[in-house]
């Protein structure tokens, strides 16, 4: 019974059941495999979240995004600028209550330095239907090397709860061929 | 009833009053018994409040029903998380700690006054937190990430609750010391108490992290501190938030061993393996907070990989070991009980009509298959990007903390009612069905939430139709189907939860008393060899063959491996990022 003291006082000398031993070996090696597979994906995989991050005042980040939008603006939709940066350029996206700003137009197959940060609370960048999900913090500028591999209209929603407008916080990335 | 003189511990002597249990022969300190009762009752009350809120949440997220307005939705979602994840679970755990120490060790309880103080603090904290949430200015979710701020009440309430829980943990340690000093047991602690001890040790680390983060956050909410860094908050918060989950696992696994022992006379295959598996929880769990930060900026890959895998999956290994040794111990015991036919005769002839057994076994299976596997997937550094903060996350933890922990607690209740409350279960037929209804309902909500999350549906989200949003986006029809299924299974889970509460409250108030006449048989009997086996049991079952368990764990392992690689396939289809 597991509710009484072990019958053998020196329980750590007891033999181990064969089935137990076999299972322990299997799960141990499976654990090792999963551990090394994460490391391996950094070499063989193309989806590894960047760790390049800078400290920044939220207001300074807002200024950066505004300057970027002004420089490359090509149009406007619902009062939000549409911005088409040259391929390979730095791209800035701002999270704030409750919008993703501005609208970005990217080229398929081109890689961009994609900057993410928040002007106020913590938000969740969620690109749909691709399903890429990244946390966005105020005060931290996160830079990701991003390469869209399909063209079309993509929605950005917020998936970190950020108050009553959380489900209204949307944005757009358009990928052209 | 007998009164004995308690020994001299720390100069404080209490004359404990004991009664002796007719069914197990255990000697029970009546103060411990009363504290177990009040904590269990408080737990059930918060389960009721939180469960109703959960139903409201699920019905709002069912797109065809969409029950509540947005502000109410976020309000009751905050309440649902707090009342269930924190209050229901921790009140119940206090009862389990007192049971595993004072009752199982035949010992008087250390300083019941401190246990009462802890209880009062916890009740005050829990009521205050509900007040703060219901006022409407603290709909910040139980995670409460700054700079979003709740009313200062909210943080204060959590601090009081956590300090109260710490008192309970101290009483548990004190009771172990008394039992050792007064030699109320021989040799090492029983395995169940050992499991509870790991839970209590983890609780100390965890509560310390909780205090480290909640106290400055409280000061920030009253204006004494200017700024709380959100990334720092998140890191320490999850040392607390995830640590508590490891407490739940240690307690729930102890309950599996306990119920298996009382209902089929199971003893661990080998004490060494089961105990080492518990130790792995203590050694590696503090790393786990990392898997909440995989999608965050500013942390290195090395840090993420080492921590999220609990150093090469050693704590996961602990759980997988228990996942084999518990059914293995049951198989060995059932074969000894004479059920030796075929591969699964032992399982078919198990006491499935006893809700304590069925609840325990469902908890074991659902925890492993749903909660366990999905947890490893979510905690894989790169795969996390696929479902971070989607519905997959609540899908995962309804598999762990609801199908696993909550169902194990419900199963244990069917033993606590006759043994501690000394009442016969009323409505035994309903009780028989309860674990199945609740278990299948919860499995259903977990899997549908995981399905929705895989399709990108966000968690904590009032309206996935995005009708009022500036840049609408259409979720696929399958996502709506999943959210609808979630609603339907939620009704089933709520029915199962409702029956549990009705049976428990009904039994406490109106069940036939078992403390009046001489020994009476129980409606849901314990294993006949229970009392003797408890006092005198054989060596470990090294010789018994366990073909059924081998098949069960093989099915589990294959499912795990396949699902693991399916997710890497999904990941490799994403846009490229580095
Ligand atoms: C009748 C049973 C239950 C149902 C129908 C239910 C349903 C749900 C649903 C639909 C969500 C919302 C997901 C979202 O919008 O993000 C949720 C969240 C949650 N549930 Fe449950 N649940 C139940 C029982 C439980 C239990 C017993 C626990 C804990 C032991 C629990 C813990 C949680 C937590 C911690 C959250 C997350 C809250 C947050 O995101 O802040 N639930 N539940
Ligand atoms: Cu947001
Ligand atoms: Cu949000």
Topology record:
The complex is a heterodimer of chains A (177) and B (578).
Chain A: H1 18-44, E1 53-55, H2 58-72, E2 73-77, E3 80-83, E4 90-96, E5 99-101, E6 103-107, E7 112-118, E8 123-128, E9 132-136, E10 140-147, E11 152-158, E12 170-176
Parallel strand pairs in A: 3-6, 4-7, 6-12
Antiparallel strand pairs in A: 1-10, 2-3, 4-5, 7-10, 8-9, 8-11, 11-12
Chain B: E1 2-3, E2 17-20, E3 27-29, H1 30-61, H2 70-103, H3 112-135, H4 152-181, H5 191-221, H6 230-264, H7 271-284, H8 301-308, H9 310-336, H10 345-348, H11 355-378, H12 384-387, H13 392-419, H14 428-454, H15 477-510, H16 530-535, H17 547-572, E4 576-577
Antiparallel strand pairs in B: 1-2, 2-3
Helix pairs in contact in B: 1-2, 1-3, 1-15, 2-3, 2-4, 2-5, 3-4, 4-5, 5-6, 5-7, 6-9, 6-11, 6-13, 7-9, 8-9, 9-11, 9-17, 11-13, 11-14, 11-17, 13-14, 13-15, 14-15
Bound molecules: protoporphyrin IX containing FE and copper (II) ion (2 copies).
Oligomer: heterodimer
Rg of chain B is 23 Å
Beta strand count of chain B: 4
**Strand order in the sheet with the most strands of chain B:** 1-2-3
Contiguous runs where pLDDT drops below 50 for at least 5 residues of chain A: none
Helix/strand/pairing category of chain B: mainly alpha
Computed over alpha carbons, the radius of gyration of chain A is 24 Å
Beta-sheet strand percentage of chain A? 35-45%
At the first level of CATH, what is the class of the domain at 337-517 in chain B? Mainly Alpha
Global geometry of chain A: elongated
How many distinct folded domains of chain A? 2
Largest beta-sheet characterization of chain A: 7 strands, mixed
**CATH homolog superfamily of the domain at 337-517 in chain B:** Cytochrome c oxidase-like, subunit I domain
Strand order of the largest sheet of chain A: 2-3-6-12-11-8-9
Q: How would you portray this structure in words?
A:
Chain A is built from two helices and twelve strands, in the order αβαβββββββββββ. The radius of gyration of chain A is 24 Å and the shape is elongated. In chain A, the strands form two sheets. Chain A has a seven-stranded mixed beta sheet with strand order 2-3-6-12-11-8-9. In chain A, strands 1-10-7-4-5 form a five-stranded mixed beta sheet, covered by helices on one side. Chain A folds into two domains: 11-44; 52-176, Immunoglobulin-like, CATH 2.60.40.420. Chain A is 24% helix and 38% strand. The mean pLDDT of chain A is 92. By secondary structure, chain B is mainly alpha-helical. Chain B has a domain at 337-517: Cytochrome C Oxidase, Chain A (Up-down Bundle). Chain B has 17 helices and four strands. In chain B, helix 1 packs antiparallel against helix 2, helix 2 (70-103) packs antiparallel against helix 5 and helix 11 (355-378) packs parallel to helix 17 (547-572). Chain B is globular and about 70 Å long. Residues 1-11 and 530-541 of chain B have low confidence and may be disordered. Chains A and B meet through helix 1, strand 8, strand 9, strand 10 and strand 11 of A and helix 2, helix 6, helix 7, helix 9 and helix 12 of B. Strand 10 (140-147) of chain A pairs antiparallel with strand 4 of chain B. The complex binds protoporphyrin IX containing FE (HEM) and copper (II) ion (2 copies). Protoporphyrin IX containing FE binds at residues 51, 54-55, 57-58, 61, 77, 80-81, 84-85, 88-89, 141-142, 394, 398, 401-402, 406, 445, 459-460, 490, 493-494, 497 of chain B. One copper (II) ion is lined by residues 123, 158, 160, 162, 166, 169 of chain A.
């Amino acid at each position: 019974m597991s509710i009484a003291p072990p019958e053998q006082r020196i329980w750590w000398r007891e033999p181990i059941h064969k089935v137990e031993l076999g299972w322990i070996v299997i799960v141990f090696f499976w654990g090792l495999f999963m551990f090394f597979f994460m490391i391996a994906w950094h070499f063989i995989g193309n989806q590894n979240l960047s760790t390049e991050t800078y400290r920044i005042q939220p207001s300074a980040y807002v200024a950066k995004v505004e300057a970027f939008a002004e420089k490359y603006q090509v149009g406007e939709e619902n009062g939000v600028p549409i911005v088409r940066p040259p391929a390979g350029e730095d791209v800035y996206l701002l999270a704030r209550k409750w919008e993703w700003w501005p609208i970005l137009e990217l080229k398929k197959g081109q890689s961009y330095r994609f900057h993410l940060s928040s002007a106020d609370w913590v938000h969740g960048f969620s690109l749909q239907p691709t399903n890429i999900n990244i946390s966005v913090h105020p005060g931290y500028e996160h830079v990701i090397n991003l390469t869209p591999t399909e063209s079309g209209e993509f929605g950005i929603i917020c998936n970190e709860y950020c108050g009553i407008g959380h489900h209204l916080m949307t944005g757009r990335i358009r990928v052209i061929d | 009833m007998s009164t004995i003189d308690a020994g001299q511990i720390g100069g404080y002597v209490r004359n404990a009053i004991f009664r002796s249990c007719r069914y197990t022969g255990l000697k029970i300190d009546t103060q411990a018994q009363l504290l177990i009762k009040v904590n269990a009752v408080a737990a059930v009350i918060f389960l009721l409040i939180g469960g109703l809120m959960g139903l409201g949440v699920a019905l709002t997220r069912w797109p065809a029903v969409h029950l509540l307005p947005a502000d109410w939705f976020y309000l009751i979602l905050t309440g649902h998380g707090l009342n269930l994840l924190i209050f229901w679970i921790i009140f119940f755990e206090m009862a389990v700690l007192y049971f595993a120490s004072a009752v199982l060790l035949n010992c008087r309880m250390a300083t019941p006054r401190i246990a009462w103080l802890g209880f009062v603090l916890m009740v005050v904290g829990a009521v205050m937190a509900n007040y703060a949430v219901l006022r409407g200015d603290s709909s910040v979710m139980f995670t409460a990430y700054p700079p979003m701020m709740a009313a200062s009440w909210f943080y204060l309430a959590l601090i009081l609750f956590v300090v109260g829980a710490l008192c309970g943990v101290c009483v548990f340690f004190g009771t172990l010391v008394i039992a050792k000093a007064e030699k109320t047991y021989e040799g090492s602690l029983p395995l169940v108490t050992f499991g509870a001890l790991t839970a209590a040790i983890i609780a100390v680390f965890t509560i310390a992290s909780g205090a480290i983060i909640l106290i400055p956050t409280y000061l920030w909410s009253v204006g004494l501190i200017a700024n709380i860094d959100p990334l720092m908050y998140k890191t320490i918060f999850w040392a607390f938030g995830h640590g508590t989950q490891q407490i739940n696992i240690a307690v729930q696994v102890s309950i599996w061993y306990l119920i298996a022992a009382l209902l089929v006379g199971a003893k661990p295959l080998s004490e060494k393996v089961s105990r080492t598996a518990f130790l792995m929880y203590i050694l590696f769990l503090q790393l786990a907070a990392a898997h909440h930060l995989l999608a965050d900026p500013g942390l290195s890959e090395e840090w993420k990989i080492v921590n999220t895998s609990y150093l090469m999956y050693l704590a996961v290994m602990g759980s997988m070991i228990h996942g084999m040794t518990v059914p293995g111990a049951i198989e060995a015991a059932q074969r000894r009980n004479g059920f030796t036919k075929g591969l699964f005769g032992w399982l078919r002839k198990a006491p499935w009509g006893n809700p304590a057994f069925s609840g325990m076994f469902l908890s074991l299976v659902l925890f492993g298959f749903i909660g366990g596997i999905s947890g490893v997937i979510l905690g894989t550094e790169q795969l996390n990007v696929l479902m971070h903060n989607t519905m997959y996350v609540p899908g995962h933890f309804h598999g762990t903390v609801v199908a696993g922990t909550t169902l194990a607690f419900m199963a244990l209740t069917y033993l606590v009612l006759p043994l501690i409350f000394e009442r016969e279960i009323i409505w035994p037929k309903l009780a028989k069905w309860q674990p199945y209804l609740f278990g299948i309902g919860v499995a259903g909500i977990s899997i549908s939430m995981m399905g929705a999350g895989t399709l990108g549906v966000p968690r904590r989200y009032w309206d996935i139709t995005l009708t009022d949003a500036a840049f609408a986006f259409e979720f696929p029809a399958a996502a709506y189907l999943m959210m609808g299924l979630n609603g339907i299974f939620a009704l089933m889970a709520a029915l199962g939860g409702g029956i549990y509460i009705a049976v428990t409250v009904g039994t406490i108030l109106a069940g036939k008393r078992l403390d009046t006449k001489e020994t009476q048989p129980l409606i849901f009997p314990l294993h006949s060899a229970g009392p003797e086996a408890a006092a005198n049991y054989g060596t470990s079952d090294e010789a018994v063959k366990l073909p059924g368990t081998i098949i069960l764990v093989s099915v589990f392992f294959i499912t795990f491996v396949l699902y693991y690689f399916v997710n890497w396939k999904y990941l490799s289809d994403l846009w490229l990022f580095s």
